[in-house]
Amino acid sequence: MTDATFVQLLDLACGAFLLTAVLVLWRRELAAIVWLFALQGIALTALIVVLGARQGDVELILIGLGVGALRAGLLPYLMRRALVAGGGGRETQPLVNVATSLLVAAVLAMLAYALSQPLVRLSPTPATQAVPVALTVLLIGFFLLVTRRRALSQLVGFLLMDNAITAAAFLTTSGVPLVVELGISLDVLLAVLVLQVLTTRMRAAFGGTDLDELRELHD
Amino acid sequence: MVTGALGTGLQVIAVALGSPLLVGVMRQVRARLEGRAGPGIGQPWRDLRKLLRKEPIAAHGTGWPFRAAPLLVAGTALVVAAVVPLVTTVSPLDGVADLFAVTALLALGSVALALGALDTGTAFGGMGASREMAVLALVEPTILVSVFALSIRVGSTSLGQIVTATVEDPLAVVSPASVLAAVALAIVTIAETGRIPVDNPATHLELTMIHEAMVLEYAGPDLALVEWASAMRLSIFLGLLSSLFFPVGIATAGAGVLAVLLSVLVLVGKVAILGVLLAAGEVFMAKLRLFRVPELLAGSFLLALLAVAASFFLA
C-alpha cells in the first residue's frame, strides 16, 4: 500500500466514522439510529484493518474484524431486539432540540480539534492527525448520553463514546494488545446486555423507557 | 484567453436559454412519474412569452424596491452565470469574482426579492420574506464554508482554480472533506432553489410556501423576469455542483474552440441528469414541516464546518 492510498483510505474511514456520529445526532427514529450505529461499526473496522494492513500486522487485522463483528453485528442485533420488543419508534423531545444539538456538535468538533493539538504535535503522522475525529465522536456521544431521554438513544450515546475511545486507542498506539481489546469488548457487551434487561424490566414496570419519568417517586 | 471569453459567452447563453428548459424537463419528469401526460419541456418558455406580452402593472402603493427587485435578481443571476466555471475555468472575470463575491451576488438577489416582497405591505409578502431570510441565514454561510473547505486544498478562493485542481487530480474528490462538502452543498442547493423538501415550487398553500409567497404580487413582465431568474439560479447551482465535484469535460486553460463547444454539451448533459435526479427524488419525498427546515439546514452547516475541519486537520 502506498503512502497516498493509505492516507486516503484512513481519512475516508475517519470521515465515515464522524459522519455516522453526526447522523445519529440528527435522526429521531430509533431504528435509523441503530442502523447508523452498525454503519459506524463498519467504519471502525475499516479503520483498524487499514492500520493493520499498513503495518503488515495480521493480529491487528484479526482484532479489527473481531471488533467489527461485535460492533456492527452483535450489538446492533441486540439493540434491534430490544427495539422490536419495545415498539417505541422515536426519540420524542430530547432535552436540547435537534437543530441546537447539531450546532452544539459543531462547537464540540472545534473543541476537540483545539484540545487534541498537543497530542498531534507529539508525532504528526496521518494516524495521529485523525485523533481529533475520534475525540469529536467521543464528545458527541457524551452529549447524546446527557441530552436524550429514551434508554436506547442513551445506550447508543454510550456506545459511540466507546467506539471513539477504541478508535483513539488504535490511532495513537501501533496496536492495542488482544487481551486489553477483548476485555473492553466484553465489558461493552455486558453493559448492553444489562441495559437490555433493564429496559425490558422498565417497560414491564412503567410502560415506557423515558428515563426522566424515573426521577420522581410514584406510589 | 479568446477561448476563455468565448466559453464565458457560451455559458451565459446556455444558462439564459437553457434554464427554463431545465425547469420544463424537471416538471415533465415529475408529471410522467406521477402518471400525468405533462405539458412538455417547452412550457416554461411559453409561459414566459405569455407573461412578457402582458401589460406591466405594479401593485398599488409599492415603491422602487418592488420595481428594482426583478431586475436585480435577474441581473445578479446573469453575472454569476458569467463568473462561475461551468463551461470554462478561465473566465476573463475570474480575477475579480471569487467564491465570496459569487455568494454575495447570489445573496444580493435573494435580499432584493425579499425587500420587494416586504414593499408590497401584504401579509403574504412579509411572511414569505421572513421565511426566506430564515432560510438564507443558514444557507449562505453553508455555501461559503463548504466551498471554502474545497479551496483549502487548492490554496485559493478562486472557483476557477478549485475546479482546475480537481480536473488535474479527479481522485482528490474522494476525501472526507469533499464528501462532506458535497452533501452540505447538495442540501443547500435544494433549500436555496426552493425545491422539495424545503419548499414546494408548485403550491400556493399559504401555510408552506416560501418563494411563491414573495412573488405573489408580481405580474406580467416582472413575474416573467423573476421566474426566469429563479430558473437560472437553479441551473447555476446544479452546474456549480457538477463542476466542483465532477468536472469532467470542462474546458481548462489552453483548450481549443472545439473543446469549449464540447464542454457546453457536457454541461447541458450533466445539469440535465442532476435535474432529472432531483425531480425524480422529489416525487418520493414529502415537504418538511417549516419548523423542521432549520434543523435540516443546521445539519448541512455542521457538515460544511466538519468539511473545513477535516480538510484543515486531516491533510
From TrEMBL, chain A:
Location in or out of the cell: Cell membrane
Q: Which UniProt keywords apply?
A: Cell membrane, Membrane, Transmembrane, Transmembrane helix
| Residues that span the membrane, as ranges | none
**In terms of one coarse class, where is the protein primarily found?**
membrane
Q: Does the keyword Cytoplasm apply?
A: no
User: Residue span of the signal peptide, if any?
Assistant: none
Give the protein name, as stated in the record.
Answer: Hydrogenase
TrEMBL record, chain B:
Keywords from UniProt, A to Z, are:
Lyase, Membrane, Transmembrane, Transmembrane helix
This protein's membrane topology, according to the annotation, is: Multi-pass membrane protein
Q: Where in the cell is it found?
A: Membrane
Q: Which domain of life is it from?
A: Bacteria
By its UniProt entry, which Pfam families does this protein fall under?
A: NADHdh
> Which GO terms label this protein's molecular function in UniProt?
lyase activity
Q: Which GO terms describe its cellular component?
A: plasma membrane
The keyword Aminoacyl-tRNA synthetase appears for this protein:
no
- Name the PANTHER family on file: FORMATE HYDROGENLYASE SUBUNIT 4, FORMATE HYDROGENLYASE SUBUNIT 4-RELATED
Q: What is this protein called?
A: Formate hydrogenlyase
